[in-house]
From TrEMBL:
Protein species of origin: Rangifer tarandus platyrhynchus (Svalbard reindeer)
Cofactor notes: Binds 1 zinc ion per subunit.
Catalytic EC class: hydrolase
Cofactors demanded by this protein: Zn(2+)
EC number: 3.4.14.4
Keyword Metal-binding: yes
Name by which UniProt lists this protein: Dipeptidyl peptidase 3
Main location: cytoplasm
Top-level taxonomic group: Eukaryota
Catalytic activity as recorded in UniProt: Release of an N-terminal dipeptide from a peptide comprising four or more residues, with broad specificity. Also acts on dipeptidyl 2-naphthylamides
Keyword Zinc recorded: yes
Keywords of the record: Aminopeptidase, Cytoplasm, Hydrolase, Metal-binding, Metalloprotease, Protease, Zinc
Amino acid sequence: MEEPEAGSECAIGAAAAAGPMADTQYILPNDIGVSSLDCREAFRLLSSTERLYAHYLSRAAWYGGLAVLLQTSPEAPYIYALLSRLFRAQDPDQLRQHALAEGLTEEEYQAFLVYAAGVYSNMGNYKSFGDTKFVPNLPKEKLERVILGSEAAQQHPEEVRGLWQTCGELMFSLELGLRHLGLGKEGITTYFSGNCTMEDAKLAQDFLDSQNLSAYNTRLFKEVGQDGKPSYEVRLASVLGTEPNLDSEMTSKLKSYEFQGSHFRVTRGDYAPILQKVVEHLGKAKAYAANSHQEQMLAQYIESFTQGSIEAHKKGSRFWIQDKGPIVESYIGFIESYRDPFGSRGEFEGFVAMVNKAMSAKFEWLVASAEQLLKELPWPPAFEKDKFLTPDFTSLDVLTFAGSGIPAGINIPNYDDLRQTEGFKNVSLGNVLAVAYTTQREKLTFLEEEDKDLYIRWKGPSFDVQVGLHELLGHGSGKLFVQDEKGAFNFDQETVINPETGEQIQSWYRSGETWDSKFSTIASSYEECRAESVGLYLCLHPQVLEIFGFEGADAEDVIYVNWLNMVRAGLLALEFYTPETSSWRQAHMQARFVILRVLLEAGEGLVTVTATTGSDGRPDARVRLDRDKIRTVGKPALERFLRRLQVLKSTGDVAGGRALYEGYAAVTDAPPECFLSLRDTVLLRKEARKLIVQPNTRLEGSEVQLLEYEASAAGLIRSFSERFLEDGPELEKILTQLATADAQFWKGPSEAPSGQA
């Protein structure tokens, strides 16, 4: 294809697809997929002690997950409180009668239920996967009538009206600065006060590094004095506030500092009443722990959440790593930094799951082969960890996953120093994979007809392989070159050569620096890209496929579908790119786009992405992968790319890493792919991410019961209404009080305080 024609095709494609984009990005469709998480069999096999342990850990996780509302947007806690009040007074069926009487259509009421289910699922009004705001898909006046005429409003008129006045406008607003999470003019975030910029975030990170404080459990609030000088509050999450506590390593940190001409104050007590409930239930779980590792782990988590100490959480994580192969697996804390616009503050999450023994046996075999497989990775041995610390790798059936979303697999802890010296654990979440990633044939976009049946048959098995390799040998591989506080290096400066330059190592991590703090805004996505690339690269290895039970033609199909899934995901990723700010909103999807670009760059017809017109007359696209060229063209291209990623990561070369990664992540309308125009096509044909309904556990006498719910928006709402039966009103009050106490940090100078609960 000649370039001018490709260019003009881009323009036509963009114009044709530009119509309905604005709305559909910001609503959840009425026909959104909803699936229930099935863990009945795994739960049935637990002993009564294990059930009690799982129950109290689940309660701790669900309470802690409420902190995510305060980590997302200023209005999220009020929206949650309003919805909780509505559905506590009338369940979805009862409220439906009232809504229809108020003049809503069935479609409008369903749109409200989907919105409410979305808020509960994402723990806020921004999508956890993509960080885009979603608003109710019905007229505001109609929703107002339903709310103000509801049973909840009749029982507590002032409170319900106050909540609506506080969050009603923001619930529907799609002002430019509110459409996405981001810092400063880029969007909204409650990890930082509204007046913070990326420069403030960088200064705060330098300050935290200088004091050897982690950003994981912090938020940053900036105030500007009358003299125009800024002062910053770094607030740690903890139960304790200003109370003196002489025994804690944290007490000495809680004071004022002057740093690079700015005033910093370290305080604590963020989310205190929520964390109090977390601590209380972790204490109850401790009585049913299976061994001393679990007891000591929980004691350290309790210390961490009480004092605001990440060091205590690290100690707890050490005991957690040592607790090999538990029947009930869990992790809890401020963990993933994907949603912090700067990339270093952790969102609260907690999960509880039970081991799936059949799949875990395959993962154990993969772990046993890991040291051999690590040698296959395309970087010199000096760039690999000195010793592979054999991790736990289990397939789990999730009972509880509290936070903003549920992943398919996890490799934790995220503390670099622990990962390098103590090890880590991998988990694949089997019952999540079973429901979250299935696609109906008629909804399968951008593939050739002849690929669709193959894709549907092998997508699940190939994803099992990819998740296993991604978590264990992706996140689990590679060494960071570090100089410690005494000046000692963990590599030989004389003999280690950079394979990209042929010279000795010129850069490394200084004491106190971490991967997240150094690579900040690109760290999460870059690391996901490295792990995804390792998965694609190693799935070509016959031993890997044999471990998962695939040989011959089946093995070739698994490889083909794994690679095809990745290049299709690279195209789907465009949904998560914001052209206005030239920014990506989702780390994994940015990573998949980068891999698509690398494979396109390899040429020779390995991958093609072509704009087409669909059978419905609307813009469409096709992704093609030449399966005969995966090994001859794809593998060498991935090998070169992976080596560069690892070398730049190992040496802490931020400038080189940014240049490489941001270069591939740039979205332009350059032919032949015309990605900016294709983005409109992707938005036109996107399928909303499924909502997942989770069960509850309830203590009845001394026995724990499992309560399951139907796979619908109404079922998801019921699961949340029954989650906090005893203390729902108290939690709503806590959330709105915490939100109100900090509300001034996100108000413009002209705004007066709104009504509150």
